[in-house]
Here is the input.
Amino acid sequence: MGYVWDSGDHGKFSPDGKVADTFDADAHNAALEAAELAEWGTKPDRFCGYVSGGKLTTWRGIVLGDVVRSNSSRTGFYGSKITAYVIRGNNGACYHGRHGDMDFIRLRKMK
Here is the structure.
């Protein structure tokens, strides 16, 4: 199960659907983030994160690196915008990746 989002009055949700209201989302999310940070420290060849405000972060907002360069262009698919990034991770490696209208980005380590 991925990260769990607590919507307050409407309940708690994971990518798999609604979870029990008694589920400890904070502890679950903290454990997932700890595993991501441990993986990040090994300089993985591929990694997923979120780009916002010139930073690469985890879902919960821990900064993993800085955007070094970005370039946006329009595609032929209804004029959607694609942004390409080069990111210098705080783990010592550089990564590149692209994303569309969402902040989620899949990265590959540069050689």
Notes: The chain has a mean pLDDT of 91. The chain has two domains: 1-40, 46-111. The chain is about 15% helix and 45% strand.
